[in-house]
User: Which sequence fits this backbone?
């Protein structure tokens, strides 16, 4: 009965540690899930920024195709003049800014850090063997103590028998 209890406790401890390590640091664990969520958030923010730039460019494109006043304003920005207008260049002044759409650096998806499954299983087996060994040594210790007390009682009985 003691051997079965010892084995059962060791299996329970090993399984618990395996599950704990796997659920926390494993491939689908809490840590890896948090890293993936952070990447998803960054990608979503980048996609929203690119969508905003796309919408702005589409509006500008539609206006440049159809609105003569926008076409004239854009032509003036890049140095063209209409008939009857005079071009006046002033040195030292910054020219009007042409909006440069920068979508930023490329975001690369990185593999999240996790502990491999074999390591989680190895940890569970290691805990099993440590707990089993500890309980086995405790059983041996109890048997040695019982044997010593039995010998001690036996030697007392022998010495009292010799005295009488």
Assistant:
């Amino acid at each position: 009965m003691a051997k079965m209890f010892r084995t059962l406790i060791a299996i329970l401890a090993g399984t618990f540690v395996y599950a704990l390590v796997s659920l926390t640091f494993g491939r689908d664990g809490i840590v890896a899930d948090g890293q993936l969520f952070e990447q998803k958030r960054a990608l979503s923010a980048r996609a929203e920024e690119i969508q905003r730039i796309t919408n702005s460019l589409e509006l500008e494109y539609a206006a440049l195709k159809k609105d003569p006043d926008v076409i004239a304003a854009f032509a003036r920005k890049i140095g063209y003049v209409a008939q009857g207008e005079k071009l006046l260049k002033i040195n030292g002044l910054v020219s009007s800014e042409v909006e440069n759409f920068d979508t930023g650096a490329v975001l690369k998806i990185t593999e999240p850090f996790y502990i491999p499954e074999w390591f989680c299983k190895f940890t569970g087996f290691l805990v099993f063997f440590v707990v089993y060994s500890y309980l086995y040594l405790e059983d041996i210790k109890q048997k040695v103590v019982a044997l010593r007390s039995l010998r001690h009682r036996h030697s007392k009985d022998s010495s009292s028998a010799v005295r009488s």
Helices lie at 2-25, 30-66, 68-77, 117-163.
